[in-house]
Structures are given as structure tokens and as C-alpha cells.
Amino acid sequence: MLFRIWFSLAAITLSFNTIAAEYIIQFTSTKSAQLIAKQMNLQTFTALGSTFAKIKTDNPRPLENNPNILRIEPNITYRTFDDSWEEVTDPKFNMQWALSNQGMNEPVKPDQLSPLPGTIGCDISAQRVWSEITTGSDQIIIAVMDTGIDYNHPELKNSIWVNLKEQNGLPGIDDDGNGHIDDIHGYDAFNDDGDPMDDKGHGTHCAGIIGASHDGKGIMGVMDKVKLLPIKMMNHKGRGELEHAIKAMDYFAKSPARVVNCSWGSNLYSEIFQEMIVKLEQRGKFFVAAAGNLRGRNNDQHPTYPANYQVPNLISISSHNARARHSHFSTYGPKTIHIAAPGTKILSTYIKEKRKPRYKVASGTSMAAPFVTAAVGLLLHQAPNLTGDEIRNRLMETAIKEHHLTPKNITGARLDLYRLLMNIRTQTDE
Ligand SMILES: [Ca+2]
Ligand SMILES: [Ca+2]
Ligand SMILES: [Ca+2]
Asked: Domain residues for 17?
């Protein structure tokens, strides 16, 4: 705790006496907010019952002692956790090693002759789940807090959540009274409007991993049927700030989604953000967070947030490759990262670009998290009353232990969807 306090104070102190920086103020009450906002001429916004404002100052210290202010934190910048991107010319399921690893199906660049041999069976057992258990359901709603989703993508358009009251309502009117105008397919917290179209591609890639349709074309998502709820909180560069994250969290809180994918983060701690996750635990909401891409970095010592928040309704995900090894770019954390999931050379959907296929191969813990998010969606559909703690324990106890992953995360294990949904626990004597 001391470390965290130091961490946030250090961030404030660093910018003290230098140049004016942006801060987010959380007020003690609505009344306090009105008072201060009027005095200082600030625009306020509300989220999860609290009132906030953004302020630019070179000295936040006097505000820290103001009795009307509960917290003041730097307006942290969050970044997407994608490590590398590659073009693809011929997308197809037999390149999706993460779903069904045949030993030779890691995607290759056009100038490469053959992929590195993968380990047969090093996948999440998706095919077995599809044939024996489920391919998903329209009742499962999954939020993707990211750069948006291309909701017109042929692989995704049938799987995008629809706000019926807005779809059947009037343009320019907030038909469902949720505070957002024309939010038919979700919300754009970055621009504060009702259109979460992706202008980067990152969110669309994550969305395809979860729910690209099983339609005989292109690729397949972990789920054939699902409702994806895009909450855009980052711009075309994959950058968003605490202000946008707070607004995105408020939308997620009000939405019917129970699980959210967070393939992004920052090394800066935010008490405001952590408190929001805790509040949402009471509403049965679960967070899947990518652990970050700083190669060789130990999250136990150098935390990444939100992945490192010590709350029961969040799971932190590192990345493994087709050979069941820790991905070279992924952070590790024997005490703080829970499980690994496939994140190296993942083929998925991408935004529309001139004369290019709407697919790309990408690597990053950003790509690993959505496999787990989809798994949580399916698990909650099967067992809706699980608590955050129970969801995380199930994921950890049913993950497959791998020698090479052992020092890299708490369990030394990787996601296995079949074992998760069949509740097949790893023997403790292994
Ligand atoms: Ca609305
Ligand atoms: Ca409307
Ligand atoms: Ca498809």
C-alpha cells in the first residue's frame, strides 16, 4: 500500500514545478463539485455515482488539501499492448494455431518458406469445445474497451450488440435515457459520442479473436455466437487517458455485459480506477487485463495497470507462443500474473484499408487477453452465479501446466477452454 501511495505521489511530484499537466479530480460530493467547478470554471462529468473534472495545472498540491476534493490523480495515458503487426494475404482457419494447433500452422510472411513447427495440441482446445459443448450464444454479452470495433466487418457485423431503443428511436435523441445520444452499437468515450467505430484496428483484432463468425469464410472466433459491445476509449494511435477510462467504465457499469476485455494499460497506479473495479465486483462484473509487452520485465516488481490491481474480479494474462513457451515480448510475474494464453502470431479481423484484406496477424499480450475474455463469457453463461474470485480460481485451476511457463506466472499454466467448461482441475501433485 505504501508503495502505491508513493507511486501516485511520485507521479504528481515529478510534474511539480515543471510544465502544466492534466489531472483528474474526484470530488467528495455533487455539492462540492458544483462549488469548485463554478469557482474554477471546470467542466464536470459523472461516473459510477461520483463527480469528476479535468484540470490543467503546474501545481496540484493546494488541491490535494481541499476538503471538497477526494482525490487528484495525473490524467494517465493508457496504451494498447500490441507488440507487432503483419500483413496477411490468405486468411484461413488452418493458420489459427491458438484454436487448433496442428504443429505447422503458425502464419508466415509471404517471403518466408515455412513456419516454425508448433507443438501439436498447444491450443485452447476450441474444436473439442465446439463439437462437444458449445459455440456460444447471443445471450452472452462481452464488452471490448479499446479503440472501438469495426461493426461493419463481415465477420463481426452479426455479433455486435444492438441497443434496440436507440436503433428504433430518433436520431439526435437519447432514446433509452442512458445519457448517450444514438449509442446504437456502444459508446465512444474518447470523443464522447455514440459511435464506437474503430479507427486503429486494435479493438477489431481483439473482437475477432472473441467472436469472428463461423461462416465458412476467413477465420473463426473462440465463439460463433456472442454479442460484442464496443466501448471506444482510445484514439487512432491506441492512446487514451484516465478521463476516457472513467467514462468507459461508467458505460460498462450501466451495460448488460458481465465481462470486459482490457488489452491496454499503463505503469501508473490510479486509485480512482481501482475503486471502480471494486464497485463493479458487487454488480458481478469481471475484468480480463493484458499483462503488458515490456520484454523481460517482471510485473511483480514493476506493475502494469489495470493488470496488477489486487482485486478478486480481475485476471492478469501473459502470452505464450505455439510451442507452449512464454512469448519473448510478454512481461512475466510469478506472483502477479495468473495464467498465459496464445498471443504470438494471432490471425484476426482488422479495419478496412485500401485494397487490403480485412485481416492481420498480430502479436502481443493484447491478443492473449481476448481468448480468456471469451472463455469467461462462456463460463458465465454456463454458471451465471460465479463470483469474481470463483471465475479466476476456475481459470487458474483448469489451466494446463507447462514446464516453460512455470516461472512466468502464478500457475505456470495456459488457458484450456475444454477443461474450464468441463471443470477439470489440475491435480495438485503435478
Ligand atoms: Ca442512449
Ligand atoms: Ca437516438
Ligand atoms: Ca469466419
From this structure: 2-75
pLDDT in tens, 77-112: 999 999 999 876 556 778 899 999 988 888 877 667
Same domain, 145 and 204: yes
> Do 171 and 26 fall within a single domain?
no
Q: Is the peptide bond before 107 cis (omega within 30 degrees of 0)?
A: no
Q: Indicate which residue of 338, 366, 381, 416 is catalytic.
A: 366
Cα gap 207→239, rounded to integer Å: 18
Which residue among 83, 123, 146, 188 is the active-site one? 146
Regarding whether 394 and 265 lie in a shared domain, the answer is yes
Give 147 Cα–ligand 2 centroid separation in angstroms.
Answer: 22
Same domain, 108 and 196: yes
pLDDT-derived band at 4, boundaries 50, 70, 90? very low
In the annotation, is 185 catalytic?
Answer: no
Q: Which residues pair with 44 in a beta bridge?
A: 53
Nearest to 129 by CA among 381, 360, 362: 381
Provide the percentage of residues in the chain whose pLDDT is more than 90: 85
Q: Is-contact 27 55, C-beta < 8 A? A: no
If asked whether residues 60 and 184 sit together in one domain, one would say: no
Separation of CA 178 and ligand 1 centre (Å): 5
Q: Which residues contact 109 (CB under 8 A, 6 or more apart)?
A: 86, 87
Question: Would you call 320 a catalytic residue per the annotation?
Answer: no
Instruction: Pick the closest to residue 127 from 424, 365, 426, 416 (CA basis).
Output: 416
For residue 344, the model assigns a pLDDT of 96
The Cα 163–Cα 361 span in angstroms is 31
> Ligand 1 center to residue 182 CA distance, Å?
5
Clarify whether 58 is annotated catalytic: no
Calpha distance 423→71 (Å, rounded): 42
For residue 428, being part of any structural domain is answered with no
- The CA 91 to ligand 1 mean position distance, Å, reads 37
The set of residues, in sequence order, having a beta carbon less than 8 Å from that of 239 and lying 6+ positions away, is 77, 78, 79
